[in-house]
Write a structure and sequence with these properties.
This protein is α+β, with helices and mostly antiparallel strands. The protein has 5 helices and 12 strands. The structure holds flavin mononucleotide.
Length: 217
């Protein structure tokens, strides 16, 4: 089968992309508005931008049911555009997956998903706002750029502080996946855990591998 995007209805485009680009990690993004009101929502159009500087991206690819901007997008915009230019991405573990899904509800601006969904937050260390208290890891970010691609706003944030739960790293600094229990999104209501991992030989391209050029960033 061959498809041309122009010939596809928007829901078909969505189904094809979200069903074929899997599994997607989930950024549980907490942010705060200029009036100090907290917000929390999941985004699975999410990836690493780079590790030096450490940067992440997620994409706000739609609008609220009332056609207004999603609260997260409003909040992470730079101060000169009415936002605070800061946010926190928390990693979603299996134990908190249900709460995460609940925070996707389209609540009115200023109504906090932390409160409505019963998610505990603690103040972030460097940026304003809360991070998810029970998350195995969180990344505090400052917005570097927001790239517009049609109706999608790709938010790029530089990480300014990381939080990693006690015991999650092994002696060599690697993450113990058995302690992370991260959840990925498939399509619709389907999610996936990290239970079915397998290994492949390392071809020597990892920046952490022995022999990788010293000073390479
Ligand atoms: C697991 C999951 C992943 C999601 N990923 C995205 C995404 O990548 N981009 C997006 O625009 N919306 C995504 N959504 C929908 C938003 O979470 C939803 O629109 C939410 O109400 C936005 O909240 P806000 O207005 O407080 O920012 C996702 C929902 C779920 C449950």
């Amino acid at each position: 089968m061959e498809f041309r995007p122009d010939a596809l209805a928007i829901d078909q485009r969505y189904k094809l992309l979200t069903g074929l680009v899997v599994p997607r990690p989930i950024a549980w993004v907490s942010s705060i508005d200029a009036r100090g009101r907290t917000n929390l929502a999941p985004f699975s159009y999410f990836s690493i931008v780079g590790h030096s500087p450490m940067a992440l991206s997620f994409s706000v690819a739609g609008r609220k049911p009332d056609r207004g901007d999603k609260d997260t997008l409003r909040n992470v915009r730079p101060v000169c555009e009415g936002g605070t230019g800061e946010f926190v991405v928390s990693v979603v573990s299996r134990a908190m997956a249900k709460e995460m899904a609940g925070t996707a509800a389209p609540l009115a601006a200023g109504v906090s998903e932390f409160q409505v969904c019963g998610v505990s937050g603690v103040p972030a260390s460097v940026v304003r706002g809360l991070r998810v208290a029970a998350a195995p890891a969180s990344f505090e970010c400052r917005t570097v750029q927001i790239v517009q691609v049609g109706i999608a706003s790709v938010v790029i944030g530089e990480i300014v502080c990381l939080h990693v739960a006690e015991g999650l790293l092994d002696n060599s600094g690697r993450v113990r996946f058995d302690g992370l229990h991260a959840v990925g999104r498939l399509a619709g209501t389907e999610y996936i855990g990290l239970e079915h991992r397998f290994e492949l030989e390392d071809a020597g391209f990892f920046p952490a591998a022995p022999g990788y050029a010293k000073g390479a960033t």
